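One thing: mind reviewing this one?
=====
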Amino acid sequence: MKLKFLILNILLLAGLGLQAQVKFEATVSKKKLGVNERLRVDFEMNQDGDNFRPPSFNGFTVVGGPNQAVSNRWINGNRTYSKTYSYYLQPNSTGKKTIKQGEITIDGKVYKTTPIDITITSAVDKPKDGDNSELIASDNLHLVAEVSNASPYLNEGITVLYKLYVSPRIGVSNWREMDSPKYTDFWSQNIQMKGLRAEDGEYKGEPYKYVVLKKAVLYPQKTGELELEPLTLSVAVDVPSDRRDIFGGRIYKTVNKTVAAGTRTIDVKPLPAGKPAGFTGAVGSFSFNVNTDKKKLDASESLEVEIEVKGNGNLNLFELPQLEVPASLEKYAPERKENVVTNLNGKQGSIIDSYTIVATQKGKYPIKSINFSYFDPKTETYKSLASEEIIIDVEKGPAPASGNAIAGNNKQAVALPSEQFRFIKLDTNLKPLHQQAFFRSWTFWGSLFLPFVAIPLFIFFGKRKEAIAADETGNRLKKANKLARKYLSEAKKKIGDHHAFYESLERAMHNYLKAKLHIQTAEMSKERILEVLQERNVSEETSTAFIDVLKSCEFARYTPASNSAQQEDYEKGASVISKLDKDL
């Protein structure tokens, strides 16, 4: 009996000893990853401790964390406790790296984790970063450029729609345009957006909401493979976190995500051979008319002849055929009339060349048929249209010298009324000019004494210029102030307009870095900016001030700011650009 109780006591003490054993471990989401992926590191303990000290994370940049999670549960009277510190790391280069030991103090005793070796490979096609908030945003937010026709003919209109697809798993609170697409080698026109409306759609077979942010109509002006540069947005994305509120609901946090539509390649085909005579590059579907406001008139009277092309295509991107008239009809340069609208179907409407014709002699004069040719991309054929011949009947006026009833294109002598030039005066009323001697004139005395007056002025301004050139501090300050005004001029104009001011201020700071340090838009993270400034030996105070201005811009998107606060932020931006330019 005593032996039985002794065994039970030993087992009980052993169980208590196991339960009281401290556990402090480091785990990673993966031990091999690409340089463009992110690593999650968790430091987990089964008892609460003090003075947690993470490792230095050499070879990595901390892009998230520390995030703290605590779990305290009772199951059948047994307590289970867990506390975790989480970090998200971005590798700086490829190769073998080590997550060194983390430390924690529990009940006065220091515990350390075991070092973990990590292998960093070259970039992978599809990076996976565990449950990182930025990865969640990347997987559920997509900007797509939809092109109506990726292989059009030269001068055939195409449309581009930029759609932002958003998964129901996340939310979007705001966005701003960072880089606008440049349509090199295209005639382009943006379609005005009257309002943004969310619509139901699919992205790769999954249900999504999408918003059309931008529309453009393009007409390629050269053949071959042409690239459409991407549209880039900075989007404030609301993603679910690991935390929950007191009612058990998921708590969301906002992360800023940069998305781009990607470069699209348009393969432009040349127009087929066999172009008809007089073809001037019209591509689309058109009708053609030649109209006149009258066909009977007297000599010296005028009439209007209109050459009109109407339809859908590259209107105002080609020339209309010219009007030819007999020599006895005086033709003036045409007046162009355009009634063209641009929508998602391309250019629609009409263009008209209106000619003023003046008759000078009696007779009947033919305006010959005019041909207009265009290429129809739907049927992939050339089409030609011709107008009817128009006879102009001049009833009253001087008769032509030849006496022909029908006048041709041959040149004829024009008989003009004797009063044709009655407005020209034949008598002159000229007055002689009295010449004044140059000697002893005001011009003479001024030319004589001007050099004596100019020499002291040249000496004075020369010394002044030398003094300014010797003032290095003043010149540097002027240069820095001029540089700050150059980049911040747009922001200063928008003080009072809360959102526009902070967008302009942030854009000015980014543009300064682009121009000065050649940092690309994709590298505009605060960590990367700090790293580059440190490499260029910029003082820590100036680097911190620059980042503080960027943080003020981001924070101001979601909170109102007074005009005085905007003025203060503007002065901070001007000051930090001046200091940064001095350090660089």
